[in-house]
Design brief:
The complex is a heterodimer of chains A (about 190) and B (about 220). With about 190 residues, chain A is mostly helical. Helices cover about 60% and strands about 0% of the residues of chain A. Chain A is built from six helices and no strands. In chain A, about 50% of the residues are buried. The N and C termini of chain B lie far apart (about 40 Å). Chain B has about 220 residues and is an all-alpha fold. The chains are: A mainly alpha (about 190), B mainly alpha (about 220). At the A-B interface, helix 1, helix 3, helix 4 and helix 5 of A face helix 5 and helix 7 of B.
Chain lengths: ~190, ~220
Amino acid sequence: MGEPRLTRAALLRGGAVVAAGATAGVALAPAGRAAEPSPARDRAILRFALFLEDLQAAFYADALARATLSGELLEYAQVVGGHERSHAAHVRRVLGSAAPSPPRFDFRDAASDPTRFLETAITLEDLGVSAYNGAAASLTADALADAARIVSVEARHAAWVRDLAGKSPAPDASDPSVSAVEAKAVIDRLDFVV
Amino acid sequence: MDDLRLEHLDRDGALAEAIAALHGHTRTDLLRGAVAGSAALLAVCAAPARAAARDRDVAILNFALTLEELQAAFYTEVERNKVLRGDLREQATVVGGHERAHVRAFREVLGSRAAKRPRFDFGGATEGSGAFRRTAVAFEDLAVAAYKGQAPRIRSREYLASALAIHSVEARHAAWIRRLAGKSPVTGPFDDALTRRETSRIVARTQFISTTSTTRRSPRFTG
């Protein structure tokens, strides 16, 4: 087995080593150059983070309501669903009156059986990590410190669910990052937002 | 910040158990105990308070480099000892490869400003699967907390993006080894950060970084 490659060029452009297939076959392009941090930009980024957390929380709630999960997969959905609700509540509190209300979602068959649940959970968790990583370098220091407490938990979720699906929990030496636009495109393709 | 206790990080007691097993202390001794300094790591961490932003970034990258060297050496040694089987061996092989890639990347970026590689002595931590598991859990959770503490202090946006891309991989490693150790991959909805000083003290307590540094001078005799 060859050593994972993490070149100086990759490190300098933000560790943007694209993990092929990391999000269900969607190739994630490297995030663009980080924008200058400001409180207004913090709020914009946090609103998108809140959207992702609401989406994840609703997905796990849907999966648990369908009662098709058992064993460690059920435990995963319960624990991680609780985390996503905590994240959403936290970001909503930070945003205050600037926080949008949760969108309505329709997950159709995405959580209807354990196999589909696993696929979608992996996509959403890996996407969460990539989106936080892509946005974090544009946050002010305080907002970054706060977001960093969440992103590593998303990465733990991703590793856990990948392991449950028989995939490598850590497919690369450096996680890819995506811009909000790229993350939004992935979510649009999933078509979960009503 | 002299009141840092090991349990602040070591929620499962994994590190305390690992060290206790290696050095013959009880866990309570360690949680109470005084810190034995590790000259090599502390030297790396002793950045001047008024250092310019660029110098501070270099100091942070060197701190990260030393943590990565520590982890890389640990996984490389356990692989050489051939004491792991199955999923645990797979984890050590993959994660060891990642840590070595992190070391190479930091060394390349730092160039001549890269800190000297310390000498390591892992005692029995790489000689059995139980000790390996406990120590790996502690190392990975520590790395996550350490990167999280440093990220908001990095001035260069490029270095920051890179540190974040590694930070989340360390969290994946942590979840992976925790599950293999029979622990929950997660410890709660939010992961806490550790400062550089807190991290250094925890590493120092392991005594994994050899204090017989090659830079130590012979005593001067005046008689």
